[in-house]
Each structure stands twice: as structure tokens, then as C-alpha cells.
Amino acid sequence: MIAFLLKEQENFKARKTRIRAGTRITVLVELTYLFFNALNVVITICEHADAFALTEIYYYS
């Protein structure tokens, strides 16, 4: 009976560890997506704000 309870406790700890690792990976993936999406928004805003300089100033020099 005691061996069964110890094994069950080990399984619970292993399950908890796997869930924690999965949660960390999910958060990391989501934060990476949000960071690069925000970077894309900043670049797009810069392109729209100064489109003339991006196309004309360096094109003819």
C-alpha cells in the first residue's frame, strides 16, 4: 500500500513537472509571437510615415 502511494506521488510530481514545462514553452512561443508582431507594426508605421524617403532619396543617388 505504501509503495503504491509513493509511486502515485512520483507520478503526480512528474505530471506537474511536465505541465509546468509545457506552460513555459507555451508562454515563450506566445511572447515571441507578440514581440515580432509588435516589431512588424513598428516597421509598417515607419514605412507609412516616411514612404517618400524610403523610395526616392536613395533610389537616384
UniProtKB/TrEMBL annotation:
Bilayer-spanning residue ranges: 21-43
Q: Which domain of life is it from?
A: Eukaryota
Entry keywords, A to Z: Membrane, Transmembrane, Transmembrane helix
Task: Tell me what this protein is called.
Answer: 7TM_GPCR_Srx domain-containing protein
* Naturally occurring in which organism (per UniProt): Strongyloides papillosus (Intestinal threadworm)
